[in-house]
Amino acid sequence: MPPSAPLLRLLLSLLLALACGLATAVEPLRIGIFAYRPKPIMEQRFQPLADYLGKVLGGRPVELLALEQAEMEAALAENRLDFLMTNPSHYLVVRSRSQLASIVATVISRDDGLEVSSLGGVIVTAAQRDDINTLKDLQGKRIGVPGTRYLGGYQTQILEMLEAGIPLPASENLQVLEKHDKVIEAVLAGQVDAGFVRTGIIESLQGEGRLNPAQLKVINPQNLAGFPYRVSTRLYPEWPFIALPTVDRSTLRRVSAALLSLDAEHPVAHAAHIGGFAPPADYAVVDNLARHLRMPPYDVAPQFTLTDVWHHYRLSIIGGGAALGLIVLLLALVIRRNHALSALTRSLRDKDETQRQLLARLDTVANASPALFWTAGLDKGCDWFNRRWLEFTGRRMEQELGNGWAEGVHPDDFDRCLANYVSAFDARQPFSMEYRLRHHDGSFRWLLERGLPRHDADGRFIGYIGSCLDISEEKAMQFALKDLNASLEQRVAARTAELAAARDAAEAGSRAKSAFLAKMSHELRTPMNGVMGMIELAKRRMADPKGLDQLDKAQRSATRLLGLINDILDLSKIEAERMALEDIPFDIQQSVEHILSTLGPSASEKGLQLETDIPAALIDMPLSGDPLRLGQILFNLVGNAIKFTEHGAVTLRIAPLGETATTMQLRFEVIDTGIGISHEAQQRLFSDFEQADNSMTRKYGGTGLGLAICKRLVRLMGGEIGVDSQPGKGSTLWFVLPLKKCQSAPPPVPAAAVPVSAEQRLQQAFAGKHILLAEDDPVNQEISRSLLEHTGLLVTVAVDGAQAVAMARQATYDLILMDVHMPLMNGLEATHAIRSDSPNRTTPIIALTASAFDDDRSACLAAGMNGHIAKPVNPEMLYDTLRQCLERGRSR
After folding, report:
1. Distance (Å, whole) CA 561 – CA 179
2. Residue 544 to residue 572: CA distance in whole angstroms
3. Is beta strand 431-438 parallel, antiparallel or unpaired with respect to 609-613?
4. Residues pairing with 453 in the sheet
5. Distance CA 725, CA 723 (A)
6. Are the C-beta atoms of 198 and 225 separated by less than 8 Å?
């Protein structure tokens, strides 16, 4: 060998070592990061971590790969990764495939300075969705998820739903969007009803300026102390940092130490939006979740090999072999027993004879029975009939055998009878049926037949046995009953038709009565408006004291007549079921004070004491009901007590009887020291047009309608009314009402320091305003015009609805008073036309009508009117209504 050979070998060795070193130096360490957010975001966050680990490993290249789920599975299958950071559910799959895979550390999340090593799921929907508020509301809804293998993006939410008893979403309602960001975008765009994302996503998008959290609503929110993120589920360990089997121990120790040494203030942790890493967490809770939901790796049953079978079932196999040996031994014993069986067979032959004798006896019994018996073999044909059958049909045994018996079945029953028999026979099931069979006298008799399967001593099916009973008499009774029922149904139908006709006639009469009352109400109130209006105008111009006294008396008579009309109208409303009750908050003390202020002067004129007895706790209690009708009842009862009491006192007492969480039962009593009422008179006290003693009408006045109306109003309000009295010892008229409790009392009525009439207030504030008066009746025109002009208002009169529309289209008015019943065009039609096309589209329009039904008022408001004044017109009410409407118009 030349002298240079050792040197050459040394040089080659150095070159080889250098090449190996270079090869080792350039081999990068690959870290796979599960891209649950867009890849650019994940790479930007965790590239500093890869650079940091490269420095720790002495400059060894560390390659960061942000991978989606399919890409990560492919990289793992090709062994292209050394480390892996993924969600806990995916770690279970990796662990099942590679038993050597181990957790190096667990990620610590950070938000607003708070560090957590747990994650959970969030269920979100758009903030404006009022139909999704709880987990149950998710049933049948479209749900967007990043993927079914996401722990925080699917599995944690599904577990919460299952434990709440809510079924899993159907596959057609589940939209896999692959990224948490896309789920949020789909929810906000309305492409899905709700979305599942992991914790921290909402906060991350907010920090990136891509989301306003107020746009979202969290379903099933959890208030977990110290946890900084919005969450809908329980918590699970954060992401694991996993080392795959390809990593050597030295690298593993250095990477582990580097990760655990990262604190929250390190630039790498800041870049990755984490608080560093913690020692490996216990992922058993994630394992339990996957097992419960049958998620990977627990979604398929494991495969068993023969080695597995022996390993798991060797004891059973050994036991089975021993059993097989025992069977062989028993078989030998069976062979030995055959000889004994032969002897037994001979003994059985002897027993057959005994059984034949027994069957002969059974045949005798069957023939003596009143039932018709038969048997059939495996071919479905009958092979025996008892004597009673043959006597019934009048045929011989050979004629009935097989299917011969079917010749006697009634043609109308044959197909049904045969189908029942064959279907039961094929199913080996008992059967029961009714059919007609020809009797030996030529008539058809009804039979009830029952069949049962027969079996031999070994349990083998050998055919059927059946019995038949003659039920002709029962069927005849059944048919007779059916005919009777049909007759009764016809009679009931005829009676029903008669009752329906009577009901229709009654309803027609009721409608006619209602129409008549409405018409009469209008016709009576219209002239009453003229009478009372003219009296009012005359009083304004009358200076003579005697004349004023006479006009006051005329006005009281007119008011009394109007009260009678109102009573009749109230009674008719109740009978026609057109009385509408209000349900509004009111102060019972104000209702009582109104009665005292109204009827107190009448009591004082007679020298009577008008007293009240109300518990203090009841005075301040807010209640709800119809204060107008309650006041009407109290006014009638207290007014009657004053009328029929000459001396002493009248007391209004209110006492609670009982209460629930929502209602208060009150008893109202009006106690007087008057003339009293006999027991006989009490029976008709609350009847229409009745008083305790009809002779009292001449002495005390009245129509007898007040108490009848009170009774009907009380019953309409769900209460009861009665009287306790003895002649000469006074009376107590009482009623009990259920009233609702209110959360708050009605607003108090402010007391005016100096009383100012509605007429004065109208004149002071709105003199000179232009009013359009639409009224066809000359008398009512004169009354209304005079009342209006007296306050300084300017009035223009239209004599019908058509003229009112024409004038409203030519000029602008401050307010329009519209009569409802006018020729050519009524007030409702005129209002609609003015509201549709005129300069007065927003001008207040007040209805003037003698129709006092509630639906008449509703029709006025529906036509576009702003208020309703009933005739006869009360001047103060007219002035106050005009003032309120003009004030609202001025505020606009």
Report:
1. 83
2. 42
3. unpaired
4. 464
5. 6
6. no
Token duo for residue 379: 């071919």
pLDDT tens profile 819-867: 988 888 999 999 999 999 999 999 999 998 876 666 778 888 888 899 8
Judge whether 631 and 640 are in contact, CB under 8 Å: no
According to the model, what pLDDT value does residue 464 have?
93
Phi and psi, residue 665, nearest 5°: -90, 115
| Residue among 583, 661, 641, 652 at smallest CA distance from 619 | 652
* CA separation, residue 807 to residues 773, 798, 861 (Å): 11, 8, 22
Q: Which residue is listed with tokens 């003390």?
A: 589
**CB burial readout 443-465, b (16+ within 10 A) else e:** ebbbbbbebebeeeeeeeeebbb
Query: Would the pTM of this model clear 0.85, i.e. be above it?
Result: no
Tell me which residue has tokens 């004053």.
Answer: 642
Higher pLDDT, 415 or 312: 415
Distance, CA of 852 to CA of 593 (rounded, Å): 27
With H, G, I as helix, E, B as strand and everything else as coil, classify residue 541: helix
Q: Which residues contact 558 (CB under 8 A, 6 or more apart)?
A: 528, 531, 532, 535, 872
pLDDT tens digits for range 20-77? 444 444 589 999 999 988 999 999 999 999 999 999 998 899 999 999 988 988 999 8
Q: How do beta strands 663-672 and 584-586 pair? A: unpaired
In angstroms, the CA 795 to CA 815 distance is 10
Q: How far is CA 592 from CA 589, 704, 710, in A?
A: 5, 24, 17
Q: How many CA atoms lie within 13 A of 888 on its CB side?
A: 12
Distance CA 76, CA 297 (A): 15
Closest CA to 393 of 443, 437, 446, 439: 439
What own/partner pairs with CB < 8 Å and gap ≥ 24 does 540-546 have? Answer: 540/790
| DSSP symbol at 409 | B
∠ at Cα 245 (242, 247), nearest 5°? Answer: 80
**In whole angstroms, what is the distance from residue 728 CA to residue 541 CA?**
48
- Cβ neighbours of residue 68 closer than 8 Å, sequence gap 6 or more: 35, 39, 178
Pair 106, 117: CB distance under 8 Å: yes
